[in-house]
Amino acid sequence: MYVQQHFGKQGILLVNLGTPDAPTPRAVNRYLGEFLTDPRVIDNLPGLAQQVLVRGIIAPIRSGIVNPFKPGGSTKLYQELWTENGSPLKYYGEILTAAVTERLGDEYVVRLAMRYQQPSIESAVRELIAEGVSSITVFPLFPQYASATTGSVHQEVMRVLSKEQTIPNVHLVNSYYEHPLLIKVFADNARDVGPLSQWDHIIFSYHGLPQRQLKKADNSGCHCYKVEGCCNRIGQVNQFCYSAQCHATTRAIVAELGLPEGSYTTSFQSRLGFDDWAKPYTIDVLEDLAKNKGAKKLLCFSPAFVADCLETTIEIGVEYQEEFEAWGGEHIQLVPSLNDDPRWIDAVVGMLTERMGEKVLTEGQ
Ligand SMILES: C=CC1=C(C)c2cc3[nH]c(cc4nc(cc5[nH]c(cc1n2)c(C)c5CCC(=O)O)C(CCC(=O)O)=C4C)c(C)c3C=C
Ligand SMILES: [Fe+2]
Ligand SMILES: [Fe+2]
């Protein structure tokens, strides 16, 4: 087999979604303004209308800059989330990047980027190019593919690279939703919490996505939300369906832990707007479990996220917990996120090196 020679270092770009620079209304407004004007995120508004609506109304209201009904808005939630190290999403991304850099050694240059706000993909890619890397592997910190997340990251990387005279080898990682290394870390984290038999039910709660975006990922046009249980198996027709990938992640963790059928549910959270999103909604599942099934103690996985963030720590850990208690439940125990867990760092290094089949040569070899 012929092996392509590389001279110099290989670049790795770890990318997460992004987070505000500070828990202030201005910074949150700036973040949401950039995030929600991405046509891959809000994909059903014409460009100019989206800019005007988001920057003039949605972001200011949601951030709490203007909000007569719910003072504080998302800014208040970010203030609850904020730690002495700042936003956990960014902080753990920095730790992961430093650890991967150390583990991979001198032949690699590793950079962290955020799709929205700082550090930008543009600055990180430029740094890699300035280092003279022979390749760039883009590794989004989203196990499942969605156009709104991974697709947007890849588009932005390609936009930045398209301005370069020389474009190095580029590897875009689409997803790793059932990679055994990832699955093992989630499963081990759940085992660490204690015996699984103590939970009345186990929830796998993923970030939601509008159903129209799920349908767009169905190339056949006749599978998603048309075939009963369309996401219960994954194959050629729905391999890039976010919901199908989420269900595949659940099945893999369930198999690793040996969970009995009926003891767990896959659901989706963080719905925004009035359209239908991926179902069932986590909040509805919680209500049903508390009111109709008498569930008191739940274990909740968040396998769409690799670090603590607003959607896990606050939305599930505080808001859903309060609702669950009001319906008669007692406690929702979050499976700790992957954060800076050494097993997660090992998993990322493993997934990256697996893809680096090509030999690294230094000048003169
Ligand atoms: C994990 C994958 C994610 C998908 C898919 C996703 C889709 C998606 N998100 C919104 C709107 C918002 N998301 C927000 C926060 C947020 N989203 C993700 C990940 C995914 N989003 C993360 C990791 C975070 C947390 C960031 C942090 O700083 O902690 C927010 C901001 C918070 C809020 O105001 O609620 C919004 C808004 C849409 C519309 C969407 C798909 C179309
Ligand atoms: Fe989101
Ligand atoms: Fe589906």
UniProtKB/TrEMBL annotation:
Gene Ontology biological process: heme biosynthetic process
Pathway noted in the entry: Porphyrin-containing compound metabolism; protoheme biosynthesis; protoheme from protoporphyrin-IX: step 1/1
Keywords tagged on the record: Cytoplasm, Heme biosynthesis, Iron, Lyase, Metal-binding, Porphyrin biosynthesis
GO CC field: cytoplasm
EC number: 4.98.1.1
Positions annotated to bind Fe(2+): 207, 311
InterPro entries documented for this protein: Ferrochelatase, Ferrochelatase_C, Ferrochelatase_N
GO molecular function: ferrochelatase activity; metal ion binding
Pfam families noted in UniProt: Ferrochelatase
Catalytic reactions on record: Fe-coproporphyrin III + 2 H(+) = coproporphyrin III + Fe(2+); heme b + 2 H(+) = protoporphyrin IX + Fe(2+)
Annotated compartments: Cytoplasm
Residues spanning the signal sequence: none
Family in the record: Belongs to the ferrochelatase family.
Biological role stated in the UniProt entry: Catalyzes the ferrous insertion into protoporphyrin IX.
Protein name: Ferrochelatase
Organism: Neolewinella lacunae
Taxonomic classification: Bacteria, Pseudomonadati, Bacteroidota, Saprospiria, Saprospirales
